C-alpha cells in the first residue's frame, strides 16, 4: 500500500476555480512522486454545483475527492460564515480521521486556508501522527502596509487579516513539518524558522502537455492580439496599460493590435467601470475590450489565439512578495511576455531572456516594450521559445513531483528548493 497525501482546502465560486486548478496540479505532482492522493474540499454551501463537482473530479485520474459540507444554502450570511470557518474544518477533520483508519496517510497538505483552519488541521495531524505541510502565499507585513482603507470597518478588517496572517507565520509555519512558499521573498523570510528545516519554493505548477494541444494558431488576421489576465485591482496596473496602449496607438502610430483584458467579476464592478470609462475617454474602445473572468480550460483556448501577453503590475508593497500565477500560463503556451520589473518577476528574470521587461512600471516604458516586440518578430519568437523552455524545466508538475519524492525521502532536516 502506497503512502497517502491528503490535501485539505476550501473552494469558493467563481474565483475558487483558479485555486482548484492549482490544487489539481499539486495532486498530480504528489501522484507522480509515488503517493496516493485524497482531496477533502471544504466549501461555502450553495456555491458549488454539480458542474463544478464533475469538472474537478473528471480531470485527474487516481485522485479521490470528497466534499465535506452539503450544497444547501444557509438562511443567513452570519450562519454561512460560521459553517464555512468553523464547522467546515471540523467536518474535514472528521473525514480525515475516517480516512486515516483505512489508508496509510503520511502527509496532510493544507492549501489556501486561514490561520484558524490551519490550526485545526495542525492539531489533527499531531493526533493522527502525520506530517503537516502548509502553503504560504501572503506576507503579513505587506498586508499591513498595503491596507489603504479609510473607513473604520475597512481598517478593522485589514488589521484582522494582518493579525491572522501574523499568527499563521509565527505559529503554523514554525510548527509545520514542511512549508511550501510561492515566492523567493517568502522563502528568505521563513528560511530557518520551520521546525524541521523543510521549506520549499513552489511558485506555480502546470502541465506542459496541455499547452501543446492548444499551441497552434488557426486564425489569419492583419492585427495582433495582446492579452492581459488578472484581478481588477489598482496594484495590477491596468490604468498604466490602458495609457500605454493609447501611447502605442496615437504617439507611435501603431494600430494593428487588439487588447483583450480578462478578469471582470462582480466583486470589482466599480473598478471595472472606472477602467471602462478610461478606455472610452482615451478613444481606445476599438482597440481594448474588457472580458469576464474565465476558468482555466477556457484560458488555454484564449492563449492559443493570442500573440503576446502583458503583465503591468505596479511597484509597491502588495506586489513585493507575490508571483503572478498567469505568468507560467503565458510562458508554457509559448507567448512572448512583456512585464514590468516588479517584485518576484524582477528577482527571477532580471538579466535573463525568458521575458521582456520594460524599463520601469510607467505607461511610457510599457508602451516602448510592447512596441518593440510587436515590430521585432524574431526577438519575440526567441523570448517566447526561451520562456517556454524555462517554464517546462522548472514548473511542470512532473519535475516538481520528482523533487517532492526526493524531499520526502530525505530523513535529515535540510532547507530545500524545488525551483
Kindly describe this structure.
The protein has 419 residues and is α/β, with parallel strands linked by helices. The protein has helices at residues 16-32, 50-57, 77-102, 115-128, 140-145, 152-175, 184-190, 208-213, 238-250, 269-281, 296-305, 325-332, 343-349, 363-375, 377-395, 397-408, and strands at residues 4-11, 36-43, 63-67, 105-111, 131-136, 178-181, 198-201, 224-229, 257-264, 288-292, 308-311, 337-339, 356-357. Strands 3-2-1-4-5-6-7 form a 7-stranded parallel sheet, sandwiched between helices. The chain has a 6-stranded parallel sheet with strand order 10-9-8-11-12-13, sandwiched between helices. Helix 1 crosses helix 16 (397-408).
Please sum up the structure shown.
The chain has 419 residues and is of the alpha/beta class. The protein contains 16 helices and 13 strands.
Provide tags for this entry.
six-stranded parallel β-sheet, Rossmann fold, seven-stranded parallel β-sheet, globular, 419 residues, alpha/beta
Strand content: 15-25%
CATH class of the largest domain: Alpha Beta
Which structural class best describes the helix and strand composition? Answer: alpha/beta
Q: Helicity range of the residues?
A: 40-55%
- Low-confidence runs: 13-17, 45-59, 70-75, 412-419
Mean pLDDT: 79
CATH topology of the largest domain: Rossmann fold
Query: What is the radius of gyration computed over CA atoms, rounded to a whole number of angstroms?
Result: 22 Å
